[in-house]
Inverse folding.
């Protein structure tokens, strides 16, 4: 039963409102079965009536749509310069969002985790205030993550090694709901692969902040690799003899396309835009402001970094031929200025004509991509088994007791 409930719920998420008759035809179920399933989902507060369906062959019927305003997933992120959280309801609406700046390199691992847990607790309190319940938390972390143990084996930019992030967070939160851990690039890729959008089912997502990573989505599924380490694009060697990377090697792609590379090229060491105390959004806004004013050094820096982005994207596109390269994180904030250089090098680097049909797109999620992907991952449990959410009558009875 829970399997068919999940089928109905996913169909409404991916394809939008539809009548019971249409759901029955699309899912290969009887109308009576679908009516019973929709009734149960309504009792659990996961769907609601959405008016009369029009424009479909056959007799008009009352359509139903995803509701789930009382169910939230929380996404969280640990990065070099910040910890952040977001709570999304089942329909993808933002219920709460928080971010706190820090310098992870100067703090003990325990303090960074404590700050994240405090932010999660604050977000969960906001969810309760909105009359909703949290069904899970998924945390993105920058670095190589062994998902079988929820162990961050190497976090070059964080300076972490062999940190049992999952166990540490679960111990601190003591929550009844699941606490998941994943690579932040994977979570960003999940957020960009929009359910129901055929143009986003085969994409390469490049997520940049201090470090650079991302994810590969093929036929709507995230490719994790044998041990879950896929997507560490930032550590491809593209410039032998170049700058030393945080991972200890020389010439990684990250060293020529990461945020540090852009700031080094765009400004002198004493320039305010290089000051870590200045918020990341403010620093990038200043870069864009200078570019808009025609500052030659800024424009040259964006062109230089954009060229390297295109070179790396071309290497990856030759291997997997994605429908789109989606630029996320800091790349999305300054990407319009980089786009010409990216597209030029992508086209030059891909063997297939017209870059094999691969287009360059800018994420609209920016720095929230990873936490949004985390919230979506946390909510997947409900789509897998909607019975995890109690019937409203059960909830009332629990409250009376």
């Amino acid at each position: 039963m829970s399997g068919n409930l999940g089928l109905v719920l996913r169909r409404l998420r991916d394809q939008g409102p539809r009548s019971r008759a249409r759901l029955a035809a699309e899912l290969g179920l009887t109308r009576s079965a679908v009516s019973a399933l929709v009734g149960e989902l309504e009792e659990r507060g996961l769907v609601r009536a959405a008016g009369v369906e029009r424009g479909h062959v056959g007799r008009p019927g009352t359509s139903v749509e995803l509701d789930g305003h009382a169910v939230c997933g929380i996404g969280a992120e640990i990065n070099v310069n910040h910890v952040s959280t977001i709570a999304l309801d089942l329909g993808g609406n933002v219920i709460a969002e928080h971010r706190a700046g820090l310098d992870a390199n100067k703090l003990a691992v325990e303090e960074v985790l404590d700050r994240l847990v405090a932010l999660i607790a604050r977000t969960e309190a906001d969810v309760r205030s909105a009359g909703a319940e949290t069904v899970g938390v998924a945390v993105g972390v920058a670095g190589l993550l062994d998902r079988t143990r929820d162990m961050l084996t190497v976090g070059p930019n964080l300076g972490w090694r062999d940190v049992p992030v999952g166990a540490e967070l679960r111990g601190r939160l003591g929550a009844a709901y699941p606490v998941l851990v994943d690579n932040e690039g994977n979570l960003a890729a999940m957020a960009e692969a929009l359910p129901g959008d055929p143009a986003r089912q085969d994409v390469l997502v490049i997520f940049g902040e201090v470090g650079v990573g991302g994810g590969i989505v093929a036929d709507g599924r995230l490719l994790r690799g044998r041990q879950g380490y896929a997507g560490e694009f930032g550590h491809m060697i593209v410039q032998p003899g170049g700058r030393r990377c945080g991972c200890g090697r020389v010439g990684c792609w990250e060293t020529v396309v990461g945020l540090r590379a852009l700031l080094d090229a765009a400004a002198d060491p004493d320039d305010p835009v290089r000051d870590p105390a200045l918020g990341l959004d403010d620093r990038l806004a200043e870069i864009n402001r200078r570019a808009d004013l025609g500052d030659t050094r800024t424009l040259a820096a964006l062109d230089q970094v954009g060229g390297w982005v295109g070179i790396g994207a071309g290497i990856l596109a030759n291997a997997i031929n994605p429908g789109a390269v989606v630029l996320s994180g800091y790349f999305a904030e300054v990407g319009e200025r980089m786009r010409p250089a990216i597209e030029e090098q992508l086209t030059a680097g891909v063997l297939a004509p017209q870059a094999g049909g691969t287009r360059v797109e800018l994420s609209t999620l920016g720095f929230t991509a990873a936490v949004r992907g985390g919230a979506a991952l946390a909510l997947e449990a409900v789509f897998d088994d909607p019975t995890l959410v109690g019937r409203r009558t059960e909830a009332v009875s629990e409250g009376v007791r």
Notes: Confidence is low (pLDDT under 50) at residues 394-401. The radius of gyration is 23 Å. DSSP finds 13 helices and 16 strands in the chain. The chain has three domains: 2-67, 71-189+369-388, 196-365.
